Amino acid sequence: MQNQAISPTPLPFVVAHRGASGNAPENTLAAIRHAAELGCGWVEVDGTVTADARAVLHHDDQLDRCSDGSGLLLAQRLETLRTLDFGQWFDDRFLGERIPTVAECGLLCEELHLGCNLEIKVVDGWEEPTALAVCESVRNHWPKSTPLLFSSFNQAALLVAKQLLPQVPRAYLATVTPQEWQYVLEYTGSSALHCGDNACLRRSVIQKVIEAGYPVRVYTVDDPQRAAELKDWGVEAIFTNYPARMTGLGA
Ligand code: G3P
Ligand code: MG
Fold first, then answer.
1. Per-residue DSSP letters for 45-78?
2. Which atom of ligand 1 has the smallest separation from the CA of 44?
3. Residue 112 pairs with which residues in a beta bridge?
4. Would you tell me how many other CB atoms lie within 10 Å of the CB of residue 225?
5. Nearest protein CA to atom 2 of ligand 1, as residue
6. From the CB of residue 41, how many other CB atoms can be counted at a distance below 10 Å?
């Protein structure tokens, strides 16, 4: 079957993971700003949903690791989440950093001329509402000229995005590339494979995926030597917490 998925313009080799999250609190506007300061052209962030169906940036189901709140993010309304601090856990310099909405992320990317890989980060059992909220926010607020790419580990979320916003390219995320990768890419209408850098990652598989017409991008790569090796394998982009380490590899 032909790959019918919409392809984004190729990504630069270095993409800032959760913003420049090695140097600023992940998934905050400060981390996105820092990525731009380091010369990145694209950022990856995680989009999820609040109790009142607002799309915000956050990685974990729980609030505890990256804020002064606790418990499930999904159980809180946006106005409550806005009272929490999402910066001080990382460093006192970031005290007062608030949880960003997807809409605010889009506006900042527009201002900084950044492309954005918005990963749809679902809570188990809440896949479709998460994807709906993220897509709704993008539909209503994402700046038209700001490059956007959806990705998700969750196939149901990708299918919601495909149905609601078919013009936004999608990538399928896999910790370990499944044997049936081609079927999943076609089924979800994904134009690229994003896969984890671990002992299961094989050059031969990556080459097959690329030969089938799908760019491969790898997360999370913080070692510049490994990044250079992956580039040699034909990997289009890496997601890194430390873009500054990747000098010369292409931001
Ligand atoms: O999108 C790449 C990467 O962010 C996927 O894993 O857990 O860091 O969101 P995670
Ligand atoms: Mg992510």
1. EEEEE-TTS-EEE-SSSBSTTTSS--SBGGGS-H
2. 1
3. none
4. 8
5. 219
6. 19
Can you give the pTM of this predicted structure?
0.96
**Distance from the Cα of residue 210 to its chain's centroid:** 21
Which of ligand 1's atoms lies nearest the C-alpha of 217?
A: 2
Residue 151 Cα to ligand 2 middle (Å): 9
Closest CA to 154 of 134, 136, 139: 134
Residues within 5 A (CB) of ion ligand 2:
46, 119
151 in contact with ligand 1, CB cutoff 6 A: yes
194 touches ligand 1 (CB under 6 Å): yes
Please tell me the distance from the alpha carbon of residue 154 to that of residue 120, in angstroms, as a whole number.
8
The confidence score (pLDDT) of residue 250 equals 80
- Annotated catalytic residue 34: no
How many Cβ atoms from other residues are within 10 Å of residue 132's Cβ?
18
Active site residue 59: yes
Does the beta carbon of 67 sit less than 6 angstroms from any atom of ligand 1?
no
What's the length of the chain?
251
Task: Return the pLDDT at 247.
Answer: 86
Residue 2: pLDDT over 50: no
Residue nearest to atom 7 of ligand 1 (CA): 59
Give the C-alpha separation, 169 to 174, whole Å. 17
Alpha carbon distance 74, 126 (integer Å): 9
Q: How confident is the model at residue 9 (pLDDT cuts 50, 70, 90)?
A: confident
